[in-house]
Design goal:
heterodimer, A: 109 residues, mainly alpha, 3 helices, B: mainly alpha, two-stranded antiparallel sheet, 5 helices, 2 strands
């Protein structure tokens, strides 16, 4: 049975939604792009094996590259999320720093 | 919990700061790799495309040295787990590309191999540079006018 991108993608997105639930709205477009690339790579591997363009020894290397690309993309999502949290806390502290430090008479914040 | 994020004065830090050197090194590697892949595309099936040629083997040696330097630099920064993970992933992709090239013997990388490799690498470079750009953009926030750390 020939593999197809849409079926592979549907399964992959459904499986990833749970672990990524907290940031799913942010992560979904990145995940969809990366999983589409992985699914497309799997379909390409099937076709290239069938026509002898690649050997079974080469197939895992091609898949590995797309897995690493997905890892890097989702790490960017995680990093931007952490940055947003970091900036929100620092902005909140900065907003009250003068008032708090003046009231206390020393630099607490 | 929160204390684990404190690193600079009263600012909280959850992720490493923008690193201009890493940004430049990644951009340079991307440019060199594009040149390499374009060259291989022009030589598909020819002896010059084989891994065993000195020019091709040398590319992998230089790329790995560059990636090793980036990994060490990233690891030396506080709160750099995410960036380190990205550099390690990129290094593994170059290792995969090298193995693929070696497995193809005298034929070198095929056009399909090159397209697949380019797709993965472009995605990884974009991911790393997108995060560095976000870190750069927020660098003014993390150094906001908060009081310096008090002596303990």
């Amino acid at each position: 049975m020939a593999l197809d991108v849409a079926t592979l993608l549907e399964s992959m997105l459904a499986a990833a939604e749970g672990p990524l639930k907290a940031g799913w709205a942010t992560a979904e477009p990145f995940a969809k792009t990366q999983f589409t690339n992985i699914a497309q790579q799997i379909v390409d591997i099937e076709a290239q094996l069938a026509t002898g363009q690649i050997t079974p020894a080469q197939a895992p290397l091609l898949l590995d590259m797309q897995k690493q690309a997905a890892q890097a993309a989702l790490l960017t999502v995680e990093g931007i999320g952490l940055l947003a949290v970091q900036n929100a806390i620092n902005a909140a502290l900065a907003a009250v720093a003068t008032a708090v430090n003046t009231a206390l008479g020393f630099a607490l914040i | 919990m929160l204390a684990s994020g404190l690193a600079t004065g009263c600012n909280i830090r959850l992720i490493s700061d923008y690193d201009a050197v890493l940004d430049q090194d990644v951009t340079t590697l991307q440019k060199d790799t594009e040149v390499f892949l374009n060259q291989l595309s022009n030589e598909v099936g020819q002896p010059a495309a084989a891994y065993s040629t000195s020019a091709n083997a040398e590319f992998y040696v230089k790329a790995d040295a560059s990636l090793a330097t980036m990994a060490t630099r990233a690891a030396s920064q506080p709160k750099s787990t995410i960036v380190v993970g990205q550099v390690q992933a990129l290094r593994q992709t170059y290792s995969d590309m090298k193995q693929l090239h070696q497995l193809n013997g005298d034929k070198g990388l095929s056009a399909a191999n090159i397209a697949n490799t380019r797709s993965a690498l472009e995605s990884e470079f974009t991911s790393i540079l997108t995060l560095e750009l976000a870190l750069k953009a927020s660098s003014g926030v993390s150094s906001s006018a908060l009081a310096p750390a008090k002596a303990k």
